[in-house]
Specification:
By secondary structure, this protein is mainly alpha-helical. It has one domain: MFS general substrate transporter like domains (Growth Hormone, Chain: A), CATH 1.20.1250.20. Helices cover 79% and strands 0% of the residues.
Length: 467
Amino acid sequence: MADVHKPYNTTYIIGITLVATLGGLLFGYDTAVISGAEKSIQAYLIQPLGLGDFAHGVTVSSALVGCIIGGMISGFLSNRLGRKRSLLLAGLLFFTSALGSARPEFLFFVKDEPTMGLLLMFNFYRIWGGIGVGLASAVCPTYIGEIAPAEIRGRLVSCNQFAIIFGMLVVYFVNWGIANGQTIAWINDMGWRYMFGSEAIPAGIFVTLLFFVPETPRYLVLVSQEHKALAVLKRINATNERAKAILGEITSTVSETAKSKIFSFGVRVIVVGILLSVFQQISGINVVLYFAPRIFERMNIAAARDASLFQTVIMGFVNVVFTVVAIVTVDRWGRKPLLITGSIGMAAGMFAIAILSYFDIISMLTLVFIIIYSASFMMSWGPICWVYISELFPNRIRGQAVATAVAFQWAANFLISSTFPRLMNVSGAFAYGLYGSMAVVSALFVWKMVPETKGKTLEAIEKIWKK
């Protein structure tokens, strides 16, 4: 039943959103599972082959190659298959990658005999899952943004970021639970396999539930299925009149731009989308997420790996709390104020860590500034970047424009993550100072170039670029 006090069916919309955000949860799960397993992979595959920091960095971040591929093809797939079937494909990629990463020896190799071929096969499975991550990272916010009413779109798309962070928190718990009380030898032999394999459970649930959600009305209009689009809009909205009015808006914008290419609305909208994606990454967030256990071990707070993993769990809770702050405020305060405030907090946190690193002061104070940095990101750039990506682009070019922005995002992610181990060996102070500087630049970029989209329909946002 629709809520009589609101112009939309809250229960139905929340149900759809929860299913879609499972893609975000798997996004977070897949990208963070490596944080508990990377030292075991180093011991099991990298060191026996006599390989160094570069091979370790590339292996840890190899899934990001798949993320770039997934992001690049997401526009083509979401336009050809639809948003829903693209998510189904992403779920299948998550499922098969989880099993393959847990047992890379399957069919072709022998357990406990590390070879270059086995290392390449492990990286193949991680890249395979990364394609699912890249696909889900583009299509999940697009799906939610196209389903959600304008009044609550920011909150609902932000829920996808909450799911990403919650997925990371879940896998931190899983990794810690697997490693807790076990010997390093067992973790290096079997524990990391359980870590990767555990992802198959949420992936299977995601694929199953997707059969019960609709395609988005905006995609249905794009493929000339207006009657199906209207049926979905009637379920989403409280009145048939509102549903018909929204369908009219969608139909008019699609017909006006039937032959649009990616730059049909000018270069600026594409550049803004790409730079939002790039700045989300080059401020260093995934350095903290991927390498968190190792960073905590270097702090000498606790020597044991399970203790460092537990500290990562604590940080995961902080991330969840501050993502909720963004969900609560994004449709009230607006997108730009949150992004600028977050950039300032991120810069302060990173510069403080750089100073502590320069003077070789590694203590609980370091953990405090890591949390300040991470909390600032989670209340701003984490969710708000995805909100913008889901709503910034006009209807007709949304698929290819989102794909372009997401591909740049994952490329920036790969660059930062794969170079971090080497940068740390050169100078930790320089690395953290560089990320802090990027946070300052990101604030200036938002202030000067990014429009506010709070409360606007997707069709109204399109008119900004027409001007």
